[in-house]
Hints:
Blueprint (H helix, E strand, L loop, with lengths): L5 E5 L4 H17 L3 E8 L1 H6 L6 H17 L6 E7 L2 H12 L1 E7 L3 H8 L3 H6 L5 E4 L9 E6 L9 H11 L2 E6 L5 H21 L2 E6 L6 H11 L4 E5 L1 E2 L6 E2 L2 H7 L7 E4 L7 H4 L1
Parallel strand pairs: 1-2, 1-4, 2-3, 4-5, 6-7, 6-9, 7-8, 9-12
Antiparallel strand pairs: 5-12, 10-11
Amino acid sequence: MKLNNIILVPTDFSEVCRNAIDHAVKMAESQKDFKVCIYHVINKDTHAYFKGEKSVNEAVQKKLQGLIDEFRLNHNVEMEYAYEEGSIFDLIHKKAEEIGANLIMLGTHGKKGLQHLFGSFALKVLTQAQVPTMVLQQKKFTGYKNILFPVNTFTEARKKVMIARNLAKRFDSTITIFKEKVSDPAAMSRIEIITKQIVEVFKKEGVKHIVKSTEKSGDSAKELIAFAAANNMDLIMVLTEPQIGTSYFNLGPWNEKIMFNEAQIPVMCINPVETSQAFYSF
C-alpha cells in the first residue's frame, strides 16, 4: 500500500465529526506535507438528513464543499472530498487504502455514539484498517506534545514504536512509557524487558521520553486514564491483537475503556500490520 500523506475523515455532518475534521486540518497544516480528505458514505441517515432535497448527491457535494470552504478560510491546507453510497463498515477502510491515507480520524460521542454513528459493527471499522485510526470525541485539538504509550502483557508494545517515534519527531513530543504492574513475576519480567528495548530505541532516535508505571496491579485501564487526565496527555496509543485465522484484529475490553475514555483524550488505535509500509510511514 503506497501512502500519500492523506488524513481521511469520515463525516455524518455532526459536530463531533466536525471536531475530527478540525483535528485533521490542524494536524495537516502543522506538518505542511499532509492533506485532508473528508468522506461521507450515503445511507438511510443521509436521505433523512437531506429530506426534501431534489438530489441527495448534489446536497452531499454542496455540504462537503461548504465544509472545505469554511476550514480553508482560516487554514492553509490542501483539502478534498469524496462520497459514495453503501455501508460505512465496508467502505471506510477500503477508501483509506484506495487513496493511500496514512491516518483515519473517527469522531464519536463514545462507544454508544460510535455504534449509533457507524452501525452495530462499528468497532470492526477500526479493526480492519491497515493504517492507524484516531478516535476523537469532543476534546479540541491542542497538539500532540504529550503522548502516553502503554506497555502491558497482552499487546506487543514494540510494534507501535516506529509510529510513536515518527509522531514524536513531527510534533516535538514527549512520550510517557506507562508500564502495567502485574503480580506474575514472569509477566512483569517481560514488561521490563520490552520497556528497556523501547527506551533504547527512543534514546537512539533522540525521542524525549519518561517511564512511569501503575501503582498496583488490577484495573490498569482505569489507572492509565486517570494518569492521562491528571498529566494533560494529548494522545494515548493502543495496539490491537490479530484474530487467528482472519485478516481482522481484536479490540478487547481494555482497549474499549481506553478509546471511549471519559476524559475524552484522543486515542490512536494501531493494528500491527508488520508487512505493510503503513506500519512505518506515518
